[in-house]
């Protein structure tokens, strides 16, 4: 939903898709979404459905959480391996720190998760039964080194791509449409 919104591609009719039994999963590619925060993606999906239909009940938090978990796994054909906490499945879990001012709840945890959580609220992460983040510290890699290497790779890719890409990345948003669409028409 975020990539489509940023790029002006419209709003997928998710509420109608769900009513018709279509499996809908949510994810993020980061580059077009400007985020890797799946909580923001889930929130955007819900809000866009509510706003476009002018109906606060067009979609509720529960199906959105499902799209972020089991339905996302189902859309990828992985529902037998992951997407829910069950015996025999990968033990992938996150622990959200609800002791934050924006997360104080009256007991309705799913709406609070979907509408208020941000990635930095995640305190612990367990993937396939292994603790990979504890007290917000990643245990499996050196974050500073990964960020440095990612930035080096980004710079290398931009360099390889050439001047047209550098121009595209530096271009202001023009009044007559996005720069990349203008280039594509030439």
What does it look like?
This protein is of the alpha+beta class. The protein is built from nine helices and four strands. It has helices spanning 2-7, 14-19, 38-53, 61-68, 70-75, 109-116, 143-161, 163-170, 179-185; strands spanning 93-96, 122-127, 130-134, 137-138. A four-stranded antiparallel beta sheet has the order 1-2-3-4, with no helix packed on it. Helix 3 packs across helix 4. The longest helix is centred in the last third of the chain and has 19 residues, at 143-161. The chain is globular, with a radius of gyration of 19 Å. The mean pLDDT is 90.
N-end to C-end Cα span: 28 Å
What is the average per-residue confidence, as pLDDT, rounded to a whole number? 90
Structural class: alpha+beta
SS summary, helix count: 9
Q: Reading side by side through the largest sheet, how are the strands ordered?
A: 1-2-3-4
* Helix content, binned percent: 40-55%
Largest sheet: 4 strands, antiparallel
Beta strands, count: 4
Radius of gyration: 19 Å
Give the strand content: 5-15%
Question: Regions with pLDDT < 50 over 5+ consecutive residues?
Answer: none
General form: globular
| Secondary-structure element pattern, one letter each | HHHHHEHEEEHHH
């Amino acid at each position: 939903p975020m990539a489509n919104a940023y790029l002006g591609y419209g709003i997928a009719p998710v509420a109608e898709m769900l009513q018709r039994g279509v499996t809908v999963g949510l994810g993020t590619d980061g580059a077009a979404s400007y985020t890797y925060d799946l909580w923001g993606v889930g929130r955007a999906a819900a809000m866009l459905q509510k706003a476009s239909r002018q109906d606060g009940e067009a979609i509720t938090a529960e199906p959105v959480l499902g799209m972020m978990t089991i339905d996302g796994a189902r859309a990828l054909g992985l529902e037998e391996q992951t997407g829910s906490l069950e015996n025999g499945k990968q033990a992938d879990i996150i622990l959200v720190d609800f002791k934050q001012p924006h997360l104080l709840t009256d007991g309705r945890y799913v709406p609070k998760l979907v509408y208020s959580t941000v990635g930095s609220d995640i305190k612990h992460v367990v993937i396939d039964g292994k603790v990979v983040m504890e007290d917000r510290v990643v245990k499996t890699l050196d974050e500073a080194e990964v960020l440095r290497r990612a930035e080096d790779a980004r710079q290398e890719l931009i360099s390889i791509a050439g001047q047209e890409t550098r121009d595209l990345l530096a271009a202001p948003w023009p009044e007559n449409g996005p720069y990349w669409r203008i280039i594509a028409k030439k």
